[in-house]
Amino acid sequence: MKVAPIEMQRALILGLHTGQREGDILRMPWSAYDGSRIILRQGKARRGSKLGPLIEIPCTAALRRMLDGMDRTSPLILTTKTGQSFKKRYFARLWNEATSKAGLQAVALPGSDQAVELHYHDLRGTAVTLLSEAGCTPQQVATITGHSLKTVHRILERYLARTRGLAEQAIFNFENSPRTKFANQLQTVAPLTVVKKGKSNA
User: pTM higher than 0.85, yes or no?
Assistant: First the structure.
C-alpha cells in the first residue's frame, strides 16, 4: 500500500474484501454497489446460456470507506489513471511492478522451503483464509466468494491448516468454551505415598 499507485491500492482492497476473481473485479460496475453491498454475477460461472448464481457481498467498513471516497469517473469501479477500463496485461504489469517494489514478488509458505510467486488472484485465496480465521464456516465463506464448498475446503486444507492464527484461535476457543470447562480445570497432583506405619503423605 505504501509503494503502489492508487489504482493498485484500490484493486488490493476490493479483491481482499470481496474474494472475487480478477476478471470480475476489473469488470465490476458502480451499479453493483448500493452503498452497503456489492451484488454481481461471476463471469466464470456462466455455462452456455445459463447465468451463474447471484453473489451478494455485504461491504466491510474499510471497503465502504474506499468506495464512498472515490469519484465515479467511469461506469466501472476500477479504472486506469485516464479513466479507461483495465486491459488484463496492463493490469498484471502494474500489479507486478507494485509487488516487486514492495519486495513481495515471492514468499515462503509455512511448512515449505521454497518461495512461491504471488499474483493478484492469490488475494482470492487470502480472503478465504482470513474469513475462516475470523470464525466463518465454509458455507459462509462460499456465499461471499462464490466458491463451491469443495473448493473452499481445498483452499483451507492447503493454506489454513498451517497458519498460526488458526491454532491460536482454536486454543482460545478451547479455553473459553463452557463445553471444555472440565478440561481446563484439570491440574496435576502429587500421588499419595504409603509409608510403612500405615500413614500416607500427599
Answer: no
Task: Kindly report, residue by residue over 149-202, the tens digit of the pLDDT.
Answer: 999 998 888 776 556 666 777 788 888 888 888 787 877 788 777 666 655 555
Please classify residue 80 by burial: count the beta carbons closer than 10 Å to its beta carbon, then call 0-12 exposed, 13-18 middle and 19+ buried. middle
DSSP symbols for the chain: --SS-HHHHHHHHHHHHH---HHHHHT-BGGGB-SSEEEEE-GGG-BTTBPPPEEEEEPPHHHHHHHHTS---SSBSS--TTSPPPPHHHHHHHHHHHHHHTT-SEEEPTT-SSEEE--TTHHHHHHHHHHHHTT--HHHHHHHH---HHHHHHHHHHHGGG-HHHHHHHHHHHHH-GGGHHHHT----PPPEE-TTS-EE-
Helix axes 88-101, 6-18, angle to 10 degrees: 100
